[in-house]
């Protein structure tokens, strides 16, 4: 039978979709984007928009072909299970048992009975999944961690993903070795709260990094996201000692207002955040530091927003991912007074996005006439495109090999495009 997977949301979902795809392919199923017999939708529920997008895909699948087997999994499924039961879904899962997708589909094919499974245990074990080769990406992802214990006041994810839990360090190293042996040069470590890796097992992310950098042939390690509270002297020492760890860190800020940070139940002050950034840049002066910021959090005033803008400019992020606050039922913030109207959220989002573009351009221009290493991800019409260690998307007017790393001199930077030329070793 032929299948298609639609993936929404975060890098964890990308990894878990790759797992499901590999399992299906290894069991005789065929991937077919145009005429599938089975459609799997791996959903996201981080915002209302993500939920709406998930529902849109779910509703659209059977419009043209009622005989398609519709499988819905993931966070939106977990968050809206009763609502999705009313839709024409054949297999409905939460965030557990994606690794058993083959057996579940085979059972459905045999019985033709709707299959529904949700794990209601609050304390969960890590569900081991292993990918040998990423077919959908040049860069390979490894999910090293799941769950979150932070309970930021705006966030529904801890309720949907459960407690902190980590993959055994030896299994991560084995998976990384297999991916490198299958010609992946960059590995992205990902999780729901990646920087908390190993906390319940007696080790931490720095211990894992020290082992991974020893792998022959592994050229780059990228961390999908890390909290400022998890960047300690031990981590900084590893960052300082190995260039295998890329020149990019994504460190969520969420607000540059001291008052709003407290309401969000974030675990740091602005000064604490800034001091760690200074330490990082003392080790890696040209490192790219991107972030997430939520605008329009309940009771956020014009002064709070201005304070946030000023702080973002002071830190000089290389990119800001801007999210208008999304009210999630069941969270502390959903019950707060002074909810901000959508028009104000929209206006503030535009303002901060414009500032992000200015900061992105300023950061990229620092590298004009500099040489960066670029991992080529795509070649089309004699133009090669790839990512540098510091997360610049670079275009080279030359047909290069996909999945190879080249030394590239940046020759042009504008609002839409960074261009470079190959420099011989």
Per-chain topology:
Elements (H helix, E strand, L loop, with lengths): L1 E6 L3 H16 L3 E2 L6 E6 L4 H14 L7 E6 H5 L1 H5 L5 E3 L7 H11 L3 E3 L22 E4 L1 E2 L10 H5 L3 E2 L2 H13 L4 E5 L14 H8 L7 E4 L9 H9 L6 E3 L7 H6 L6 H14 L4 E8 L6 H14 L3 E6 L17 H24 L5 E10 L2 E6 L4 E4 L8 E9 L4 E5 L3
Parallel strand pairs: 1-2, 1-3, 3-4, 4-5, 5-6, 7-10, 10-11, 12-13, 13-14, 17-19
Antiparallel strand pairs: 8-9, 15-16, 15-18, 16-17, 18-19
Write up this protein.
The protein is 34% helix and 22% strand. It has helices spanning 11-26, 48-61, 75-79, 81-85, 101-111, 157-161, 169-181, 205-212, 233-241, 258-263, 270-283, 302-315, 342-365, and strands at residues 2-7, 30-31, 38-43, 69-74, 91-93, 115-117, 140-143, 145-146, 165-166, 186-190, 220-223, 248-250, 288-295, 319-324, 371-380, 383-388, 393-396, 405-413, 418-422. The chain has four domains: 2-117, Methylthiotransferase, N-terminal domain (Rossmann fold), CATH 3.40.50.12160; 124-246, Transcription Regulator spoIIAA (2-Layer Sandwich), CATH 3.30.750; 250-366, Transcription Regulator spoIIAA (2-Layer Sandwich); 371-422, OB fold (Dihydrolipoamide Acetyltransferase, E2P). The chain is globular, with a radius of gyration of 22 Å. The strands form five sheets. Strands 2-1-3-4-5-6 form a six-stranded parallel sheet, sandwiched between helices. Strands 15-16-17-19-18 form a five-stranded mixed β-barrel.
């Amino acid at each position: 039978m032929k299948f298609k997977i639609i993936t929404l949301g975060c890098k964890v979902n990308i990894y878990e979709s790759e797992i499901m795809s590999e399992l299906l392919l290894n069991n005789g199923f065929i991937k077919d984007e145009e005429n599938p017999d089975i459609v799997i939708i791996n959903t996201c529920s981080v915002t209302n928009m993500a939920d709406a997008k998930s529902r849109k895909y779910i509703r659209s699948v059977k419009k043209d072909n009622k005989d398609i087997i519709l499988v819905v999994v993931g966070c939106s499924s977990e968050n809206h299970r009763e609502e999705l039961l009313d839709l024409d879904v054949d297999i409905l899962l939460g965030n557990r048992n994606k690794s058993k997708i083959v057996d579940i589909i085979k059972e459905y094919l045999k019985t033709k009975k709707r299959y529904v499974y949700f794990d209601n245990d609050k304390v969960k074990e890590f569900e081991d999944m292993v990918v040998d080769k990423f077919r959908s990406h040049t860069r390979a992802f490894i999910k090293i961690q799941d769950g979150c214990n932070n309970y930021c006041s705006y966030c529904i994810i801890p309720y949907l993903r459960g407690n902190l839990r980590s993959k055994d360090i030896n299994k991560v190293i084995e998976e990384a070795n297999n991916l490198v042996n299958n010609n992946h040069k960059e590995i992205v470590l990902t999780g729901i709260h990646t920087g908390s890796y190993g906390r319940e097992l007696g080790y931490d992310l720095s211990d894992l990094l020290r082992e991974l950098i020893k792998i022959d042939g592994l050229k780059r390690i990228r961390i999908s996201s890390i909290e400022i509270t998890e960047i300690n002297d031990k981590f900084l020492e590893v960052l300082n000692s190995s260039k295998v760890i890329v020149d990019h860190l994504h460190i969520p800020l969420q607000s540059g207002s001291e008052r709003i940070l407290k309401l969000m139940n974030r675990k740091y002050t602005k000064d604490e955040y800034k001091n760690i950034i200074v330490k990082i840049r003392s080790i890696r002066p040209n490192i790219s530091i991107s972030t997430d910021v939520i605008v329009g959090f309940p009771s956020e005033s014009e002064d709070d927003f201005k304070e946030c803008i000023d702080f973002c400019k002071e830190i000089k992020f290389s990119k800001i991912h801007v999210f208008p606050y999304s009210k999630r039922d069941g969270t502390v913030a959903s019950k707060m007074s002074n909810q901000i109207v959508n028009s104000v959220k929209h206006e503030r989002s535009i303002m901060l996005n414009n500032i992000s573009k200015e900061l992105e351009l300023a950061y990229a221009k620092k590298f004009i006439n500099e040489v960066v290493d670029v991992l080529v991800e795509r070649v089309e019409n004699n133009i090669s495109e790839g990512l540098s260690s510091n997360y610049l998307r670079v275009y080279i007017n030359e047909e290069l090999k996909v999945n190879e790393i080249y030394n590239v001199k940046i020759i042009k930077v504008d609002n839409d495009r960074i261009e470079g030329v190959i420099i011989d070793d």
